[in-house]
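S., here's the first fold you wanted:
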Amino acid sequence: MNTFLFNEFIGTSSAAWKQKIQADLKGADYNETLLWKTNEGITVKPFYSKEDRTNTKLDLPKKGFNICQTIFIDNEKIANSLALDALRRGATSIQFISTKPFNCSLLLQNIDINTILIYFKFQFLPNVFLVELCKFINPNKTFIQLDIIGNLAENGNWFINLKEDFKQLDLILKSNKNCVSVSSDLYQNAGATIVQQLAYTLAHANEYLNHFGKDIAEKIHFTFSAGSNYFFEIAKLRAFRILWATLLNEYDQENSAVHIFTQPSLRNKTLYDYNINMLRTTTEYMSAILGGSNTVSSISYDAMYHKSNEFGERIARNQLLILQQESYLQEAQNFADGTYYIESITHQLAEKALTLFKQIEKGGGFLKQLKAGIIQKKIAESVAKEEEDFHAKKIILLGTNMQPNKNDIMKNELELFPFIKQRNIKTLIVPINRKRLSEIIEKERLEKEND
């Protein structure tokens, strides 16, 4: 590169910048005034320089990201119609969610399985059913989002029991590609810190590697949720690729490519002033894209209290289309390369998550700590701190704990129950619960509406 235009500029070191800032502070302490520490234990500086670069090479997607529409299978004809409509309107992939077997032919009718990426999220063990499904899918374009450990973590019970769940998953592994999903989104929506999310996801996946061996790595993919901490969420996804490659290196597995499916978080979404949710999801989509997600799934601004509806889903899908086609983010996964700040926090997040991962493994592994309630306890501690900051207005959700619209009435709008549900079933372990941050305030406001 020709440096002629830059020859007249004198380079300035980080030490010189810091000295200048210290002088401008006129006696105020640099560390106390300009440094701040996150809940992840990362110190954020007021400026970054090329000295903060890590030059870490990431194996990012080469052909941009897919726009995904999520559809729950209640009626196969309706689900098929919704999928075809979403594809006509700009979606390039579909996520079907199912709680039971379905008519494969009817569901996939007229869907081009050779070009459309399809995700099947199963909330049951589909061992026998998958034999039928495989007749209708392209294995190279299909991802089975099945996570038996994630099911235990979220529901407190195995699908059947430990031995039978792993036995059936073993049968599925022998005949299917891309058939193990690791649900990192659970930890984010439950309130875990970013370092915890990364470490728990890695330890969670390591349980599968320990049980089935290193060859299963190529069949594992990951589901993440992106929160509102914009730069940190970009760094989170980038850090995970580093961590995954590091773990596979210990198994002498050279192919460390990882497929990441990302959706905006529900943790920061609000019932009141719900239109702000569109602003929140926009930055979360951007974090997911710039962080290097293979697929970004849309989520409607009213998803927590309205049934699936055409307006909300169209708006959510169009947000992604605007980012992809009008904001030129179609192939933006490597845009963060070389950014001093993002590279620095990526490296720090990866280091701290790896340290926590090693502690989990030293303590017997993820499953053992999950059964002992240690993982749940650590997340609960993070949740308590976050809720304390929320009520102290150190964390702001506009329209909820800051500048609420008192004329906003929601009691007649609730088609779905928007709060965490109490479960009165016996469980093997304490389940990890997804919970929105604003639920306490919203319950109080709803009760006042009813007065």
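And the second, which I think is the more interesting of the pair:
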Amino acid sequence: MIKLQVIGNLGKDCIVKEINGKSVINFSVAHSERFKDAQGNQKERTTWVECAYWTDRTAIAPYLTKGTTVYAEGAPEADAYTNKEGQAAATLRMRVQSIQLLGGNRDNQGANAGNVSHATAAPASVQPVMRTAPANVSAADDLPF
């Protein structure tokens, strides 16, 4: 198995869909890194990962809002395509197997409210944080990106 791990911020609020009786949470995670190029100029590169989290428990969805920092891991997929300018491009996708919220709550409702790994931080319906995708969802299923 190939496993992708990403820590980053959500680019927009997640979208919960129901497909053939199964729930999926779609979200995008951005990871940015700063570096110096060969000429010594400061550069920044952002990598986006389109995520699909198949789960029967969608209670975590209200916490997956724009700007939230998450750790997610799962099986990666890459798609190559030609963009509007006629240049080759690629999309990085992940079928999420587990997710964890990181950092604090942005609207200051509590010191740990944004980190559901703490037992007192989130409603009981959200715990445990780490969940796996249903076993009956195969890799051949269409991803709803």
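Why I say that: The domain at 4-34+42-126 is CATH 2.40.50.140 (OB fold (Dihydrolipoamide Acetyltransferase, E2P)). The chain has no helices and six strands.

Talk tomorrow,
H.
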